[in-house]
Amino acid sequence: MKSFFKNVLANIVAIVILCAVFFFFFIMLLVFSSMSSDKTVTVKKNSVLTINLKTNIIDSPTEEQTGLFNVSNQKKNILIYDAIEAIYKAKDDDNIKGISIEADVLNAGITQIDDLRNAIQDFKKSGKFVYAYGNGVSQSAYYLGSVADQYYLNPSGMIELKGLATEVTFFKDFAEKYGIGIEVIRHGKFKSAVEPFIRNDISPENKEQLGTLLNDIWKNTSTKIAASRKIDTAQFRTVVDSLYGMIPELGLKYKLADKLIQKTEYDEIIKSKLSLKEKDKLNKISLSSYISSYAEGEKSGDRVAVLYASGSINNGDNYNDINSETYIKYIKDLQKDDKVKAVVFRINSPGGSANASDEILFELQQLKKTKPLVVSFGDYAASGGYYIAMAADKIYSEPNTLTGSIGVFGVIPYYKDIANKNGIRSDIVSTNANSQYYSALNGVTPYGVNLITKSVEGTYKRFVHFVTQNRKKTFEQIDNIGGGRVWSGVRAKQIGLVDELGTLNDAVKYAAQKASLKSYHVASYPKSMSPFEQIFKDFNEDDISARVIKNKIGNANYEILQQVIEKRKLQSEVKMEMPYQIKIN
Known about the structure:
Layout: H1 2-38, E1 47-52, E2 55-58, E3 76-79, H2 80-91, E4 96-102, H3 110-123, E5 129-137, H4 139-145, E6 150-159, H5 172-177, E7 181-187, H6 195-198, H7 204-228, H8 233-241, H9 248-253, E8 259-260, H10 263-273, E9 283-286, H11 287-294, E10 303-310, E11 313-314, E12 322-323, H12 324-336, E13 340-349, E14 351-353, H13 354-368, E15 373-382, H14 384-387, E16 394-397, E17 402-404, E18 408-414, H15 416-421, E19 438-439, E20 443-444, H16 446-471, H17 475-481, E21 486-487, H18 489-494, E22 500-501, H19 504-514, E23 521-525, H20 531-540, H21 544-553, H22 555-565, E24 575-577
Helix pairs in contact: 2-3, 2-11, 3-4, 12-13, 16-17, 21-22
GO cellular component, one term: membrane
Subcellular location: Membrane
Keywords: Hydrolase, Membrane, Protease, Serine protease, Transmembrane, Transmembrane helix
């Protein structure tokens, strides 16, 4: 008995010590976080604003990953709006003498890179220098860096300039091999989100829309690179087709770079440009530190609120992605806030749940009755992402935004063959004719298919109805450019799906103008989580394992993994969702 009590006491002491250690760790984490956030940054004379590998441009506060399971992440998250404002401010800041772009890989979407590039192009009008340096440079990083006055490359470096391509993965044979049945119902011949489950190749319609989309984006991107580097269009195509950037000497020969030098030599060139002596220190300041140097706390007075909506659209109340219950609360709070005089709704979404999209749209329609509502598109505003924009007074799109995809689909999996092969059968007892219209083992009954088809068709008509109201076009006009087809922002403007091509900053200025505001400040919603909230959010979520996997393999690979094994892609719900994402890597 003595031994038993001894063991119990030892376990209790161990638990107490463990809790004490965790509590100490927790308190220290909060203290260090608070210290780092309160640190005052001073911009020294002859400073160079630096965009480097630690610059992580995000579209929304909900994309921040600074919780307990991301403590090793040293990248500084910067909202694209803040990044653009910082570059505009640096243009007139006497302490900032130039910009240095030192990112081999850029953590930003294509529209965000466009905005950064345009802001840097404007910065150059001040007469200040813009230089860039690279080692193993990704295509997206080079797209930004090519705006520089001079581009320097490491003698053993490379520039991965290759153009755009997309690869679609198909699961039809896989499903048949393992006895998985998939019932597909869709409206729109271009609604290709379901193709991986019913085909083994890209349909002619999907190939057409993908080809048009990729060529639109590449034309916009390649034209700017060639113009900045002063390369003839025909020669530039040869350079890209031949992958000359992969060989540093060829990259230099064909004007992708101006000189092959080491990083230390690059820094000496900047020091010389600033007329610094050898013993003088080169003052580089990152985007995040520069923003901290002038950022202020909550201000009083009139506000233009920017409500960020980034990710897939779902039912529920989570913080990440666009969850209907959460966003309904955000929208109602903005509607009641008398200090908020106008709202800019920033959408960066490939869509998702039709039901959740409809709920969010309704609340935005109510908001619009009391305050100006302007929409700004990021990388994606497709399917449900486009649907929720239909309350806008005005829609701004980026030239490369993937826009439209006005279509609806439902995908319903069942496992009859694989179950039967393994000796699993089922029998049904029911009270009504269609009590079991769907079964995981037996699939959907003919009546069920007919019913879901009507639901899909009804949802599509409702989708088009709201588009006709907002875009002031007939059902036939929208149906002709709908059918699930995705357009670039440039073409979306041509066919009337958006009002203007412009940035988030442009949308904010228009919203302020529409609200007749002469003096105002911009407030971002939702608010970023505090370290305290981040930690407890990590412990409260079900998907800790998923977060760990995502950190290990990266977001892009995790999204592919989701398509294969995650239930979100195979749930029996009517969806408004894009079939793919396009990234310039």
